[in-house]
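FAQ

Q: What does a record look like?
A: Structure on top, sequence underneath. For example:
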């Protein structure tokens, strides 16, 4: 009768053991997932910091302004220290990373030393600028090496989820030379790069109600609907429905979804300001089978569209393409001076030339006729303040926004150095170097950092 007791106890013990083992397995899986995410985060932060270091060093060699030197040196030192911390958090042999770690440490220390020197009123010597040039060359090589390593490891692992695990196993087995010759800059990793602008300089300019476009009378829902239909083109419209409103006190809007006759499955969203009746946003989708328009033709059609809808004197500045749709930045032109805060983005299809996207928020909040002061410097005098390292290719005047949400009248100089393109802004009143942007050409257009 009691012969069943021992098997029963063993069965229960086996169940408990299995449950405990499964629980440990799940905990181990959770831990591995947590560590995998941690390693990937560290790796991509390393990518961002190293990329920013290279860009900062390039800007530093172009800059001829002491206050700008202080800003750039401080940023480079901070980013080099951050990259070194990221490097130390990776599951990688310290022997393999010895050269990279040493480079980042020296870079952080040297730029910190130079920043202290400049803050005391001294200037960077020719010899020190030569050292910075060598450090920049090393940063370029480091980025190229990291890019090659990233591609190789992703190819071997087959998927990004096991990237760090495979990297950990393979790099411990790799020689120092193999790793040193393959260390990275992954472009467009999704990291929030400092001051990275993908669609032209100052695309996120002033965000406050300073302009005159929203001073008009209040509009009703029906009036706003009529404005949206007219803006898109009444001949294109099949039906409309009211959509979400925005009531934030800064730019209140009516919202509508509009179905076009050509695309009944993809409605276009349009928002119209409750004050002044201005179209603020247009968001739509469109599948482009064949591109029939050149970029120049698309820019001209987009400019004509803006003029027809009351946005006059707008000139294209930067553009990017994606799947047959071109997003073009237009800035206001006042007396041959480009006013970057008054910005409108237009998305136009390269097959039928119709508008499928628009963002006029910056323009509506900032636009007004400005009383611009006469510059204290001539164009020639301002150009003398640009670093001789930059071979200037074009120049003009521009109004740019500042971090303090103010505006500055500047001379804009575009130029090249070491096969890289830059834009330097010199304050037309003080001669101070107001900003430096680097232009990066991609297969879809240009971006600036």
């Amino acid at each position: 009768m009691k012969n069943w007791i021992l098997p029963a106890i063993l069965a229960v013990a086996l169940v408990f053991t299995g449950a405990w083992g499964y629980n440990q397995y799940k905990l181990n899986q959770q831990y591995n997932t947590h560590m995998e995410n941690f390693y990937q985060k560290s790796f991509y932060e390393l990518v961002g910091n190293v990329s920013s270091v290279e860009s900062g060093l390039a800007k530093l060699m172009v800059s001829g302004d002491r206050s700008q030197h202080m800003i750039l040196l401080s940023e480079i030192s901070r980013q080099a220290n951050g990259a070194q911390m990221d490097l130390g958090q990776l599951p990688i042999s310290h022997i393999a990373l010895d050269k990279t770690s040493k480079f980042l440490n020296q870079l952080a220390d040297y730029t910190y030393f130079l920043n202290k020197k400049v803050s005391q009123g001294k200037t960077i010597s020719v010899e020190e600028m030569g050292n910075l040039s060598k450090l920049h060359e090393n940063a370029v090589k480091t980025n190229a090496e990291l890019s090659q390593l990233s591609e190789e490891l992703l190819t071997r692992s087959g998927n990004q989820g096991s990237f760090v695990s495979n990297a950990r196993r393979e790099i411990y087995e790799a020689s120092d030379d193999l790793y040193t010759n393959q260390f990275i800059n992954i472009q467009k990793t999704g990291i929030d790069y400092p001051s990275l602008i993908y669609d032209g300089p100052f695309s996120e300019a002033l965000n406050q109600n300073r302009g005159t476009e929203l001073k008009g009378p209040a509009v009703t829902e029906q009036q706003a609907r009529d404005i949206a239909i007219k803006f898109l083109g009444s001949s294109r419209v099949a039906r409309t429905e009211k959509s979400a409103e925005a009531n934030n006190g800064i730019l209140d809007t009516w919202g509508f979804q509009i179905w076009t006759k050509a695309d009944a499955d993809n409605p276009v969203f349009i928002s119209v300001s409750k004050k002044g009746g201005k179209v603020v946003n247009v968001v739509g989708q469109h599948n482009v089978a064949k591109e029939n328009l050149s970029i120049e033709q698309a820019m001209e059609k987009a400019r004509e569209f803006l003029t027809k809808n009351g946005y006059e004197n707008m000139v294209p500045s930067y553009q990017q393409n994606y799947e047959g749709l071109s997003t073009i930045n237009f800035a206001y032109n006042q007396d041959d001076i480009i006013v970057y805060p008054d910005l409108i983005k237009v998305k136009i299809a390269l097959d039928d030339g119709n508008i499928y996207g628009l963002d006029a928020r910056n323009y509506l909040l900032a636009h007004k006729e400005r009383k611009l002061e006469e510059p204290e410097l001539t164009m020639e005098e301002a150009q003398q303040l640009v670093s001789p390292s930059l071979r200037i290719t074009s120049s003009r005047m521009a109004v740019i926004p500042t971090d303090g949400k103010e505006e500055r009248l500047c001379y804009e100089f575009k130029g090249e150095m070491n096969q890289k393109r830059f834009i330097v802004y010199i304050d037309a009143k003080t001669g101070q170097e107001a900003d430096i942007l680097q232009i990066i050409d991609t297969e879809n257009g240009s971006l600036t950092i």
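Q: Is there anything notable about this one?
A: The two ends are 83 Å apart (CA to CA).
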